[in-house]
Amino acid sequence: MTGLTVTDIKLEASIFLRSLSQRGIDSLFGVTDGKAVGTYVEQQFHAHLGEDYQYVIGSSVRGIDFPELGVDLKVTSTRQPQSSCPYRSAEQKVYGLGYHLMVFVYDKLDDSESELAYLNFVNAVFVADKRTADYQTTNGIIRILNNGANLDDIDAFLEERNLPLDDVGRRLLAERILADPPKQGYVTISNALQWRLQYTRTISIAGQVDGVDNLL
Hints:
By secondary structure, this protein is an alpha/beta fold. The protein has two domains: 2-82 and 98-130 and 189-214, 3-Layer(aba) Sandwich (PvuII Endonuclease, Chain A); 136-179, no CATH class. The longest helix has 17 residues, at 34-50. Helix content is 36%, strand content 23%.
């Protein structure tokens, strides 16, 4: 067996999803719990990869699914393509989550005659870590920087965006932004006890910008 690379996982995701889309799944018939569907898909993907590759599978301790590659896998329904992830710092909305995202988006159909469920994967995207920041936050920062924003302007913008920071933390982040402007992100990240990630925009621009790949 060989080690798994980011290039490998992108290729294998495409092969796996095309195969799974054609398969009837009796254990998912009638299941409406998105978490149960996601767990099934993740387990099957690991089984697929395990046939040819040797790698470390993530855990709740490691935080992401493929810690050696810095890749987290999200499986979500096309009806509401979103998920949650652990909150680490407010800077994640500006500079990204700190790891790559691989998002599988499915449409589930139940065949009552055969009593089998079918998962039609309509989208699969790979978002490089540098593109996992919040779209609106980074778009606004880049815009005001291009207009000659100073430290006070950036501080005021961050306050308007209601980032979870106190005054000192916000000022420090503004100083970092001025010294190290962020790249445009393409994920929608909502403030919560956990970040709420939404992928509609990510899906719509996959394959059209650097760092957001369409895997299907």
